[in-house]
Specification:
Elements lengths: L4 E2 L9 H7 L9 H18 L4 E5 L3 H12 L5 E6 L2 H12 L3 E6 L9 H9 L5 E5 L1 E2 L4 E2 L2 H9 L5 E5 L18 E5 L11 E5 L1 H9 L9 H8 L10 H17 L1 H21 L3 E2 L8 E5 L6 H12 L1 E2 L1 E2 L8 E5 L6 H17 L6 H12 L5
Bound molecules: pyridoxal-5'-phosphate (PLP).
Pyridoxal-5'-phosphate binds next to helix 3.
């Protein structure tokens, strides 16, 4: 039997303490016992989001919260700008189209740096824009986007909101919801939150609420007004995923105890070690603006990334991600998200080295690993 290790950008591995919490007998969701847990969780979510605004919990994967942000804020024909630099930017585009919005895509080649002045220019040309939809870490390319600047630009426009997909990044890299003027921030449980898939979280600013009041798109399960109505009682409109929320209480406790600043720093060190190790191994990063949440590595010509990932997974039980769509086969992606330590980073890097050597590619393995160790254990030296 193989020991399973997840280095995919979702799902990520779950700490033993959280798994144990979730193994307890199921309690009913309309009990004082559960409401008390929910109360604590709602409070701690605000800390992770760095917001004073309400944060709602939805029983869905992250995409559910993306859909919720569209159906709750907009009306048919509303104009929105979406930044499309990968698979998840495309998801914003598709969601907008699905609901009959007038979507202007700002297309960027996958992995390329994005200058936020472009947003300012398109907003000037389209003063009737209702929303700017973007992604903090574009997981398909491992690219970091400057959301703070976009928040600053949009905050000056009373008729426009900014909506950010932070599904692979909230709780891993800095994201200041209030300070950056982010009206709606969506994320999911299975990435930096150290939980299984199944929950989505969404924060809503005062400005966003004024949009919600006017929105005419149809909604039922994701109608945030229903969630808002019972939030005061720390309740949910529908049956909540009880076990996941109990796990969430534990994982939020852990995040709080470590502190966000320390967690961000740890992700940075893991990412930095991975990036520099692969450079020493003679490989290139796929992104011009690499995120500390996930590293995408360009494979040498002729190496099939899908084969490499499958080999590492089936032979060693180690899951790293391949590329999606146009990057399929050409890149691999290693996540730094959540419950990982320095030795996990070494494991992930080594597994790629071993996999590539098995496929006939000789690499300066020693130099790569040495580089990673020197960065990971710098403070201990
Ligand atoms: C994982 C991910 C999603 C998709 O979330 P699901 O939980 O699979 O619905 C969306 N956006 C980004 C940036 C992601 O990394």
């Amino acid at each position: 039997m193989l020991k399973k290790r997840l280095f995919t950008p979702g799902p990520t591995s779950v700490p033993e303490d959280v798994l144990l919490e979730m193994a307890q007998p199921i309690i009913h969701h309309r009990t004082d016992e559960f409401i008390k847990i929910a109360e604590e969780v709602f409070k701690d979510l605000k800390y992770v989001f760095q917001t004073e605004n309400d944060v709602f919990i939805l029983a869905s994967s992250g995409t559910g919260a993306m859909e919720a942000s569209i159906v709750n804020l907009f009306s048919p024909g509303d104009k929105i700008i979406v930044i499309v630099g990968g698979k998840f930017g495309e998801r914003w585009f598709e969601l907008g189209k699905t609901y009959g919005l007038n979507v202007i895509p700002l297309n960027i080649a996958w992995g390329k740096f994005f200058n936020t002045e472009e947003v300012e220019k398109v907003l000037k040309e389209n003063p009737d824009t209702k929303g700017v939809l973007c992604t903090l870490c574009e997981t398909s390319t491992g690219t970091h986007f400057d959301i703070e600047s976009i928040g600053k630009i949009v905050s000056k426009l009373p008729q426009t909101v900014v909506i950010v997909d932070t599904i692979s990044s909230l709780g891993a890299i800095p994201c200041y919801t209030d300070k950056w003027n982010l009206d709606v921030v969506v994320t999911g449980s299975q990435k930096a939150f150290m939980l299984p898939p199944g929950l989505a979280f969404i924060s809503v600013s005062q400005k966003a609420w004024s949009f919600i009041e006017k929105s005419k798109l149809p909604k039922y399960y994701f109608d945030l007004k229903r969630y808002k109505k019972v939030l005061e009682k720390n309740d949910f409109p529908f049956t909540m995923a009880v076990s996941l929320v109990i796990g969430l209480k534990k994982s939020l406790n852990m995040l709080k105890q470590i502190t966000l600043e320390k967690i961000w720093q740890e992700h940075h060190v893991r990412a930095e070690a991975t990036r520099n190790a692969f450079k020493k191994l003679g490989l290139k990063l796929f992104s011009e603006s690499p995120s500390d949440a996930v590293t995408a590595i360009l494979l040498p010509e002729g190496v099939d990334g899908e084969k490499l990932c499958k080999l590492i997974r089936t032979k060693y039980g180690i899951s790293i991600a391949g590329g999606q769509d146009k990057a399929k086969g050409k890149i691999i992606r290693i996540s730094h998200l959540g419950w990982q330590d320095e030795f996990d980073v070494l494991t992930a890097i080594s597994s790629v080295c071993i996999g590539l050597e098995t496929m006939g590619y000789k690499l300066p393995v020693e130099e790569g690993i040495k580089e990673a160790i020197s960065i990971l254990f710098k403070q201990d030296n």
